Amino acid sequence: MTASSPAPAGASHSESERSPFARLNELLAPYQPGRPMITLAVGEPQHPLPDFVGPVLAQHIADFGRYPAAKGIEPFRKAAAAWLARRFALPRPIDPEHEILVLNGSREGLFFAAHAALRHAGPRRGTPAILMPNPFYPVYGVGARTAGCEQVYLPTTRDNGFLPDLDAIDEATLARTIAFYIATPANPQGSVASADYMRRLKRLADHWGFLIFSDECYSEIYTREAPGSMLEQAGPDYSNVVAFQSLSKRSNVPGMRIGFAAGDRKFLAAFHELRNVAAPQVPVPLQHVAVAAYADEAHVEENRRLYRAKFDLADQILGNRYGYKRPDGGFCVWLDVADRGGDEEVALRLYRDAGVRVVPGSYLARPQADGFNPGVGYIRLALVADAQSTGEALHRLVETLG
Ligand SMILES: Cc1ncc(COP(=O)(O)O)c(C=O)c1O
Predict the structure, then answer these.
(1) pLDDT tens-digit profile of 180-204?
(2) Distance, CA 123 to ligand 1 centroid (Å)?
(3) Cβ neighbours of residue 26 closer than 8 Å, sequence gap 6 or more
(4) CA 312 to CA 397: how far, in whole Å?
(5) Which CATH class is domain 53-295?
(6) Which fold has domain 8-48+299-401?
(7) Residue whose CA lies nearest to ligand 1 atom number 4
(8) Could you state, in order of their start, the residue ranges of all structural domains in the chain?
(9) How close is the Cα of 45 to the center of ligand 1, in Å?
(10) Ligand 1: centre distance to CA 93 (Å)
(11) What pLDDT, in 10s, does the model give residues 342-388?
(12) Ligand 1 binding pocket includes 106 (Cβ within 6 Å)
């Protein structure tokens, strides 16, 4: 399967670009849940907030009285750089002055990055292209389109281990490429790029002169081996590599809206310029909470323990039905329900008959040029609720689908 561009320009504000959750609401709106509802749809962590959040916030409450600087306070940038150095085998420490920017959650960063990439990139013959896996986190596509770039979808399927096939991208596309989004661990499939895969991607980026936007917001959610970072394979100058991190999943604070981008300093300088006028800043008290969060691994380990227990349940209850495989990272389960009626049909049935809300895979992906939508036939479950509800939902799913 090869890379492909989307429908012609103008068709890109299509149904498939809308929020998957808005589409799911519409699909389910005419019906009532058949049993007390359990939602496995939105990937919003439900585990407890770390207990230092309130006290640290209270201590720094007066800082709500100041506009925050776009770059982030120095203690935040130092804490994030120190955490990266402890967590990953970096080629050298990240410079907190020039190689880190605070983000209002990784989502807005991933969006604005496409716009900054266009400002940063040298001239290209033809329309600049931004590559992304398919299925993918929707902001990559909207970021690329609103930046005026062509979105090139790289199908991720069971055959390629749910990671884009780097050998399938043609040279004409690579010559126009200014950026490549990769998610590792991936949402929805939980696949993790190996060091070798990352090195190959970095070689391609250096050869063709594009940026790698490595979405690593799930890096701390895993049940066996800790996933690596693209920064580890970026060489001593971190050129062409930008990693996006977030506390939403690591520390169960999705409402706090805090993350960071780290890597290529030339790009980050251009990114900072754009962000200085356009991007949402991060309130200073929240940056202090993040400093405390990056200094503490105990709550992260507890978090992983809770996810591990739920994946143990999934192993027992799902077994090898629906092509289930425990993911290498993240908290999503990607199930093949093509032979149970397909993704939309199954999402409807689970809601109407079992009161379980899941996302149809086709809503998370786009049709390739040949019409193939790599999400069709799959459903995504986010194991974010407590263990009891998760187990109950999985039992109902098996009862309903057989
Ligand atoms: C793959 C992926 N990237 C980025 C995000 C954004 O997370 P946040 O903006 O909370 O950091 C999410 C959230 O669900 C995600 O699934």
Answers:
(1) 999 999 999 999 999 999 999 999 9
(2) 30
(3) none
(4) 16
(5) alpha beta
(6) Aspartate Aminotransferase, domain 1 (3.90.1150)
(7) 107
(8) 8-48+299-401, 53-295
(9) 11
(10) 25
(11) 999 999 999 999 999 999 999 999 999 899 999 999 999 999 999 99
(12) yes
